[in-house]
Specification:
Distance between the termini of chain B: 72 Å
Radius of gyration of chain A: 20 Å
Shape of chain B: globular
Distance between the termini of chain A: 14 Å
Number of strands of chain A: 0
Strand content of chain A: under 5%
Oligomer: heterodimer
Radius of gyration of chain B: 25 Å
Largest sheet of chain B: 6 strands, mixed
Number of helices of chain B: 11
Number of strands of chain B: 13
Order of helices and strands of chain A: HHHHHHHHHHHHHHH
Structural class of chain B: alpha/beta
Helix content of chain A: over 70%
Shape of chain A: globular
Largest sheet of chain A: none
């Protein structure tokens, strides 16, 4: 991806972190494979370490060719047909992830804020707003992500502090030796379902400097926020959270701070912004990928095309939940992630030995 | 792309909002308290709601309505139809469950409110002889509002008259394997005041016994929830300002032993105490607390097999093997307890 526009590494960290933590809107203890709360929290740490391991091939690739997207290098080092295939796969994953984000968000809003409201309106509103955000470009989105990142951090901290007195350490359980396999499995599942790492590789050429530092900060910041959320939910709700669709929202309704009796409104405001950032970010990346392979005349329709597909998919998913499950299976399977983040850089490194001079 | 090209996008965003369904304030009945009773296999639902149209200066702006039906949701629907308004539960403060309803099964009642997305997870629940009597209570001299009831109920958990009443906590206990929990008992006194007097013990969703004030206080000492309690001794009155409890399980010959250490912080009285009086007071307070904790353990755990003390959780954390071998040990509980209460003046 050739991009003249560049964002700072801090903006990239904000964008990636905010996008990644969106999934905590439906933070569920069930995704912890029956592990105790503390084991689940350890799995998050292991997941972060795994993130650092799987990025190694890309770091070596970048060391040799500079911070280029693996898609651009595929076009140059392997050939145009291969480049088109990779672009098509990543484009599909980006649109599917954006659609699942919109569907999840629509479900959350219809459940909590706008009961009995038509799904199509909520979906349309979010996609219109995201399309406008994507039209403004990565710089504007990066700057806005900085603000949202600060708001998210403050709100998570505020909710955590206000709940400290209600936290029961008994709810965390212990780590048992026989759970280690499950902990690693849970960590692996977390890593494989993290499409954020794919976007990080595509975003890399748009970041002006300090890429490695950015990657480190992104993972650490995401880990801290997710751990704070897990600590609040597990500590306060315990097993009660198991039966809840949006446990962190329930936790926020319990939180009180000074004269503010319900902190869920802060949660609601912040998570609306988080959903907007994530949808816009994925929409923008998908549009940019499409622009790379389209003729100049067709480029002006790429945003409408991507937005339209996300709208359609989200609408189908919200009316047919099974479609949402299929999308989750595809995006969480990890095949694309391993192929794009691990295998492709290795292939490019092997291929690059011969044609290094041509790049 | 020029700016005018995104104008339809911005306009669509502005105008699409009007397509979302909305309910005007005048079309809402803001529920402040709900009472659930059971009579002849029917649920009687009573609701106290905020009514701004009630401009009678002598009475509050709260109105009351009730209806009976086979299910709670049916009764709610009927109330909605009666009022011609949408019931709004986001500001509901309390749920009162009548004793008859509690004796059959409270799990259905808890589930109804738990699945309601407007109801706060930490809403206060308590038991009363007849819920409707509290909801419909009107008195010119004493105003018993849902907010004042909430305050009394919350304070009673701090001074040992009542116990924890938060919905999420009650449901967590009820969903545990043991399925035991407690709820405070509320009543209106002869002086027409609302007060909490003890607690009800539940197992598998049904009320099985009541705990006296002394037993309820024992539970609160055990939970470390008492924040203010007045001890009247022969020498003087002493206020306990708080307590902390630690539980350490041990296993001897396949029998769990729970070491319960309670540390009580006492407020130093204004008059100076002699050293020996201080020791006597501490001993008296310690023995009272020990007696109260022993009593509640005996009634709830030993007699009824209700693990409202989370002993199973302590065992699961500290002795997972034992916990797995004796998964249902609390059904015929064999355990011993070593209670050590230490008091200190702040």
């Amino acid at each position: 991806m050739h991009t003249k526009v560049q964002i700072s590494w801090i903006e990239a960290v904000s964008l990636l972190t905010v996008s990644q933590i969106f999934s905590t809107i439906a933070f569920s203890l069930e995704s912890q494979n029956g592990l105790s709360a503390v084991s689940g929290m350890v799995a998050f740490v292991i997941g972060t370490i795994l993130n650092f391991i799987i990025i190694i091939p890309f770091l070596i690739l970048s060391n040799r060719f500079g911070w280029k997207s693996p898609i651009d290098l595929s076009f140059k080092l392997i050939g145009r047909p291969f480049g088109y295939i990779i672009t098509a796969i990543i484009f599909t994953i980006l649109l599917l992830t954006a659609s699942s984000t919109v569907t999840l968000f629509e479900g959350f809003l219809s459940e909590t804020l706008f009961q009995n409201s038509p799904a199509v309106i909520i979906i349309a509103l979010l996609i219109f707003a995201s399309a406008y955000g994507a039209y403004l470009g990565i710089e504007a989105l990066g700057r806005f992500a900085n603000i949202v990142f600060a708001l998210v951090s403050i709100s998570v901290l505020l909710i955590l502090i206000s709940l400290l007195k209600s936290i029961s350490l008994l709810n965390f359980g212990t780590i048992r030796l026989e759970d280690i396999k499950t902990i690693i499995k849970t960590a692996g599942q977390g890593v494989l379902s993290n499409t954020g790492i794919i976007t990080a590789l595509i975003l890399a050429p748009s970041v002006n400097k300090k890429h490695s530092k950015g990657f480190l900060f992104w993972n650490v910041a995401s880990l801290l926020i997710v751990e704070a959320i897990a600590f609040s939910v597990n500590g306060v709700l315990g097993d009660y959270a198991l039966g809840k669709e949006y446990p962190y929202y329930n936790t926020a309704t319990i939180a009180e701070f000074s004269i503010f009796k319900r902190l869920d409104i802060i949660y609601m405001c912040v998570w609306i912004l988080v959903a907007f950032i994530k949808t816009t970010y994925y929409l923008l990346l998908a549009k940019n990928l499409l622009d790379n392979i389209l003729q100049k005349k067709a480029k002006k329709y790429s945003l409408f095309f991507c937005g339209g597909i996300i709208f359609l998919l989200s609408f189908i998913c919200s009316t047919q939940p099974i479609c949402y499950q299929y999308i989750k299976v595809i995006t969480n399977s990890g095949f694309v992630l391993i192929g794009f983040v691990v295998l492709l850089p290795v292939i490019l490194l092997l291929k690059g030995r011969k044609s290094y001079e041509n790049v | 792309m020029k700016t005018y090209k995104v104008l339809p996008l911005v306009l669509a965003m502005l105008f699409l909002h009007s397509c979302l369904p909305s309910t005007q304030l005048s079309e809402r009945a803001i529920v402040e308290a709900v009472g659930i009773d059971k009579k002849d296999d029917e649920f009687s639902v009573s609701i106290q709601y905020y009514n701004p149209e009630n401009t009678n200066s002598e009475s509050s702006q709260d109105s009351y309505v009730s209806h009976s039906a086979k299910t709670i949701s049916k009764a709610m629907e009927e109330i909605k139809a009666k009022l011609g308004k949408e019931l709004y539960f986001a500001h509901n403060n309390i749920i009162i469950i009548g004793k008859a309803a509690a004796e059959s099964d409270v799990n259905d009642i808890l589930s109804f409110f738990d699945f309601d997305s407007q109801t706060k997870s930490d809403i206060c629940i308590f038991i009363s002889e007849k819920a409707e009597n509290i909801i419909s209570f009107q008195d010119e001299k004493n105003s018993i509002t849902p907010l004042s009831i909430l305050k009394v109920t919350e304070n009673s958990a701090k001074n040992g008259k009542g116990c924890n009443c938060k919905m999420y906590s009650v449901i967590e206990y009820s969903q545990s394997k043991n399925g035991s929990f407690v709820l405070p008992i509320g009543k209106i006194t002869e002086e027409k005041l609302f007060e909490i007097d003890g607690a009800c013990l539940f197992k598998n969703g049904a009320l099985i016994d009541t705990l006296s004030e002394e037993e309820t206080r024992g539970l609160q000492w055990y939970n470390g929830d008492i924040k203010e309690y007045l001890f009247s001794t022969n020498e003087c009155d002493i206020i306990a300002e708080g307590c902390e409890t630690t539980v350490k399980p041990l296993i001897f010959d396949d029998t769990p032993v729970f070491k319960i250490d309670v540390s009580v912080k006492l407020k130093r009285p204004t008059e100076k105490l002699k050293k020996e009086d201080e020791t006597l007071i501490k001993e008296a307070i310690s023995s009272q607390i020990t007696r109260e904790i022993k009593k509640v353990i005996s009634v709830a755990f030993t007699n009824h097999g209700c693990d409202i003390f989370e002993f199973s959780k302590y065992l699961k954390i500290n002795f997972p093997d034992f916990s797995e071998r004796f998964e249902q040990w609390y059904t015929s509980p064999v355990a011993s307890f070593e209670i050590d209460v230490s008091c200190f003046f702040a």
